[in-house]
Amino acid sequence: MKESWRWFGPNDPISLAEVRQTGATDIVTALHELPNGVLWEREAIAARRDLIAKAGLTWSVVESIPVHEKIKTAEPGWEELAETWGRSAQNLAREGVKTICYNFMPVLDWTRTDLTYPLEDGALALRFDYLLYVVFDLFILQRKGAEADYPADVVEKAEARFKTLSEDAIAKLISTVLAGLPGAEESYTLEDFRGQLARYDAIDAAALAEQLSRFLEIVVPMVEEAGGVMAIHPDDPPRPLFGLPRVVSSVEDMDRIAARVPSPANGFTFCTGSYGIRPENDLPAMLKKHGDRVHFLHLRATKREEDGMSFHEAPHLDGDVDMVAIVRAALEVEKARGVQLPFRPDHGHAILDDQSRKTNPGYPLIGRLRGLAEVRGIARALAEV
Amino acid sequence: MKESWRWFGPNDPISLAEVRQTGATDIVTALHELPNGVLWEREAIAARRDLIAKAGLTWSVVESIPVHEKIKTAEPGWEELAETWGRSAQNLAREGVKTICYNFMPVLDWTRTDLTYPLEDGALALRFDYLLYVVFDLFILQRKGAEADYPADVVEKAEARFKTLSEDAIAKLISTVLAGLPGAEESYTLEDFRGQLARYDAIDAAALAEQLSRFLEIVVPMVEEAGGVMAIHPDDPPRPLFGLPRVVSSVEDMDRIAARVPSPANGFTFCTGSYGIRPENDLPAMLKKHGDRVHFLHLRATKREEDGMSFHEAPHLDGDVDMVAIVRAALEVEKARGVQLPFRPDHGHAILDDQSRKTNPGYPLIGRLRGLAEVRGIARALAEV
Predict the structure, then answer these.
(1) Fewest C-beta in 10 Å: which of A43, A125, A269, B272?
(2) Helix (H) or strand (E) holding B168
(3) Are the beta carbons of A327 and B366 separated by less than 8 Å?
(4) Which domains, from first to last, does chain A contain?
């Protein structure tokens, strides 16, 4: 397994020199500075690749080339945007960045209700508190028709919870949920968010799945021709939210995606934290079933809470995810295919000096180093068994 | 395996709250504030234990009760000092700190020539540069008769090297070597050091080994009676230095110590970094051979350099020590005995924020966290095999 590390580019508060000291050898990054929808030129890609190489690291995975909302909603012009996406992916592959991670989540890249949830040991974790999410949906966002999505007792509990929230708590909740919008360093408002959601009013899961297939039919052959592979990231969390459809949440979703465009270049990012939220997802079995097209691993452990709907991010070895079984399955896949799969420690708690350094939510330095080192130990042990 | 962490007491720049965030559950510490040779009272032990418990951690190993030089040299009064040592150990065991780590190294607790040796990734490591050590011995310390200890070509090379050293480099080398004296926060001079060495002029390895046995014959029954176990730490490095005798460096040394006082309370701290310096030491075999009396593990990897005599401290999984084989052997020992062995990540590189925080040489926060997490991963993986 290749140890990789997500780096947010030259503006990342964590430097490449620091990444070296975690033991990681590979970098996962994107040209974050480019607006969604433009072509990634080979020169810009090569320059970033060389900057990374100069620090003694290898840019091996792009995460992500964003998929424009117009592609997901099939709005006019989407085919051209898909072509551009495919050409960017080709340029990356031709410059040596052959693994193309992306997602097909409507509107939000991820959703949490707390970015600094304190655990018993003082570590700060990301958390999704289901009731707070419902509070947000019903009483803050006031999404039309939202009440129909929840049982009456949940609505009642959410209303009671809403009444306990201070203005500060409400403001914090809004900024936390909106942080999951792509490019969230820009300032979004609730009104913007409502507008984004409205674009999906007429799109159900079947329609979105069909549109993903059309997108794949355009881009997979392009990427394949350039020697690259695609790796779709699952929904985070893998459940419908805000009435939005979800199409990459389960083994059935993986089956459907693989069947529609059989090329192994139509592959998966296996994110244990995301898939792991659904208790029915048998992660090692899913990884092995689609092992011929898993090209990238996000290793992270989530812990489901008592209500069955809330969760928080656990230390990498202590959540609901059996990390040893996952690494064992990944090593089997590697052996069968004769490849080395890149993985990255996905997320991490903010611990120790992390708590005084501003980094992207889920991406502190020392917490991720801890997760990386834990997985490294597992991989080293299983490689010798 | 129980994950432990060395903590230097309330003056340690690393707090117990920080230790919690490494995932460690157990603490290794001593009443560092007490002068060598005094009795450790139960009240002081209990107070320290309770302070640690309040932070959510367990004080399970004492490292070390220092063994007074008079005991090692058999100077008048040594038996009384040994009795006091035994009573301190009894007090610890009776207050719940049952594992007593100690060493029987003359004069120096450890020896290095560089405490901030920069590695290729920017990490800072401890290093023992053999030639610099010879320079120190011959041309700085000017130890009487030292020349006889080295081949002529080494003396010649050392002289050439000495001539290249600036005054600053010489001053740094002196403070680095003297840092290995116990209680080195006091300021030692070369003259003090010569005086310490002189006490061993008439003591060879056989005499020191015999004196260790006499010490054990006094204290092992005392410790055993109180329900504790002793765990002698090997020599660091495991070779004679400055003409001093060494008696805990090899499997033959372990055999002799175990044979002389057969009680399992007469046990070992298995330090992979120290024993690992000698290529002929087969570490997993040594650990298993004396598994019934290994009570504590120091897990660290050293890397021998080309000259065969120099070494530096490597990342925990990348040195000459096969850490997977060590953990496997330790788990076998645990299973056979039905116990959980405490280990600690011994030493670590100064990485990331470590480089701006003053900690004891070899004991940075993040570098040790990395080593702990790596070993945790190995242990987790092998526990499931």
Answers:
(1) A43
(2) helix B167-178
(3) no
(4) 2-111+204-383 (3.20.20.150), 114-194 (no CATH)
